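Hi W.,

Here's what went into the run:
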Amino acid sequence: GENVEQHPSTLSVQEGDSAVIKCTYSDSASNYFPWYKQELGKRPQLIIDIRSNVGEKKDQRIAVTLNKTAKHFSLHITETQPEDSAVYFCAASTGPGGGADGLTFGKGTHLIIQP
Amino acid sequence: EAGVVQSPRYKIIEKKQPVAFWCNPISGHNTLYWYLQNLGQGPELLIRYENEEAVDDSQLPKDRFSAERLKGVDSTLKIQPAELGDSAVYLCASSFIAGAAYNEQFFGPGTRLTVL
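Here's what came out:
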């Protein structure tokens, strides 16, 4: 089955700086890669996702890049703000349209924004 | 629109007791997922339903866990008997899948289970 590795487990950055979280996956059939943000005691919420036919996607301060050859994808957050502090999970999935199958998650990155 | 609803939000039981969790997905979503999230870890898939059919239950410990989605809408996950290691958050998610169309998975707030 799929295995998703996520690094780092904890990331502390100064407010206004950029943060990068990296993930690798093992199943070359995976074709959908979402990123979820989870605040303490809350539900995971999708912040951005990318499908395997795209190399990069951007939404305001958040961007995701995908390298299918190397089987890794990354989350980039620019101009970090205090409200970005949370745990971020990457995930991978297969399925005809992407996302139909269950998601395999990484272990999460605790992002801390220092004021 | 209303999100995914789960109940109860918290449950404390003694080991060997049974427990059940309920999930009502977003209206119109045909696919429902149950995940288990241990403290400090990412969610792990337990079972996936397409309408009433369990299409992937390979990760469900069938000796003590069972699930149903009788009318293709809401779903129940049961543990009998519960063990200390079952303490975790049980998350339900739903999505609308039609052929190759993409739709994200929306998560519920989860049920936090504590087994004493």
